[in-house]
Amino acid sequence: MAKVIVVGSGGREHTIAWRLAKSALVDEVVCVPGNAGMANEDKCRSVALSQSYVEKGKNPYVQIAKHEGCEFAVIGPEDPLAEGIADDFWNAGIPCVGPKKEAAQLEASKDLAKEFMAKYNVACPASKTFTSEKEAHAYVDKHGAPVVIKADGLAAGKGVTVAATLEQAHEAVTDIMTSGRVGNAGKKIVIEDYLEGVEISVLAAVSVTPENTAGGKSVIVPFLPARDHKRLCDGAKGPNTGGMGAITPLDDVTPDVMEAFNKSILEPTLKGLEAEKFDYRGFIFFGVMITKDGPKLLEYNVRLGDPETQVVLPMMDFDFFEMCKAIVDGSLKDFSFNWKKGYAVAPVAVSGGYPAAYKKGIKITIDSRAKSIPDSKIFIAGAIEDRRSSSESKDGEHPMITSGGRVLAACAMAPSFDEAWKKAYELMSTIKFDGMFYRKDIGLPGAAESGKLTAR
């Protein structure tokens, strides 16, 4: 029996912890820092970073893992991966699901990622990189609109602007490079050709090391394709967010589309990881635009996507922990991936005012009807235990208050999309908190993020 540490506090990490806890091989999941949803899961426990035994100057997650007796680690968010948390765990003798620091720069730097794509012939839109705001403005004038402006570094989903006009493009350049809105992430920008099409997300398991490259065991295994809905309002309107809901699988992603994705994006990515001698044992997210000229890669994320994770992981018909073990020990190529039949739909509930300013500390209530909806699950993202109340709810779970913009996802599965959609929104109807807002069209026609400016 294994004891596993999960690093992170969002909906993605709640889903990961929930799946790990389902394994008969896992004794306990220690979530650092975790959230109220993880704390309410069987076999899961949240541990705050502020422990008395944590020494300054040393990785606190590794110290907590050692103190708790954890033998395995799974990393959720991108920031600690970019800072080298996987290296720290491996150096401490704890196997870790998550790429080491060098490989994690594929997400930490858009410029580096574009260089990688060009070097290994990964299908993607053309782009140029700038460190001079003056030169960036001159390029925009010469190139014209529409165009996509991206901050080079990690910007928590706030670093990309799809500019329909020259005015919007110039505003985006100035906003990212001068205003300081995304901090150091905006000192360098990537200006990318605009593509028409429809977006999809492909999450995948990766097992690449110099050792298993030599043994022919390197592999990237794609999961079910999913779709995130990033615009705040119905009909793909309003500001961009971190994700207002997701669905999987996708009826418009045919086997031919996936074959083209494998040949033009996945396979050259694998060759590149091998050629660079990266130690990449973890997950990768391919943000893809399906165009008339085939799939084009928009971005790499070096971890699972959120909220796509909240629909993809529930559809797994295999032991998630066994897959994680196969990732780190080089046996992923021989692992059997089986998927449940049907569909998963998960709208996201957000705090009033999100993605701008919003209030925190608002009480969340979940009606008992939620427990009676089969094949459904509420995944908590931005909520903590309400320590103002010492009482438990009737079902034994601790009360929660909001702590973030994206508060939770209501996921439901069913044999048909229509049934899954109805169940997901029935589940959402059992949840209440002041200012609660959610889209009513996740997965419906016209709701998808697209590369058509008329939909933006």
List the helices and strands and how they pair.
Elements lengths: L1 E7 L2 H11 L4 E8 L2 H4 L4 E3 L13 H9 L3 E4 L2 H5 L2 H7 L4 E2 L3 H8 L1 H10 L7 E4 L2 H11 L3 E5 L8 E4 L2 H12 L11 E5 L4 E11 L1 H5 L4 E4 L4 E2 L2 E3 L3 E4 L4 E4 L6 H21 L4 E12 L2 E8 L7 H4 L7 H10 L13 E8 L12 E4 L9 E5 L2 E3 L14 E3 L3 E9 L2 H12 L2 E2 L24
Parallel strand pairs: 1-2, 1-4, 2-3, 4-5
Antiparallel strand pairs: 6-9, 7-8, 7-9, 10-11, 10-16, 12-15, 13-14, 15-18, 16-17, 18-23, 19-22, 19-24, 20-23, 21-22
Descriptive tags:
456 residues; alpha+beta; Rossmann fold; Dna Ligase, domain 1; D-amino Acid Aminotransferase, Chain A, domain 1; five-stranded parallel β-sheet; five-stranded antiparallel β-sheet; 24 strands; 28% helix
CATH class of the largest domain: Alpha Beta
What is the total number of structural domains?
4
**Which strand-content bin applies to the residues?**
25-35%
The largest sheet has its strands arranged as 3-2-1-4-5
CATH topology of the largest domain: D-amino Acid Aminotransferase, Chain A, domain 1
CATH architecture of the largest domain: 2-Layer Sandwich
Largest sheet: 5 strands, parallel
CATH superfamily of the largest domain: ATP-grasp fold, B domain
Shape: globular
- What is the tally of helical segments? 14
Please compute the radius of gyration using only Cα atoms: 21 Å
Question: SS-based structural class?
Answer: alpha+beta
Query: What's the helical proportion of residues?
Result: 25-40%
What's the average pLDDT? Answer: 93
Low-confidence stretches: none
Give me the count of strands.
24
First-to-last CA distance? 49 Å
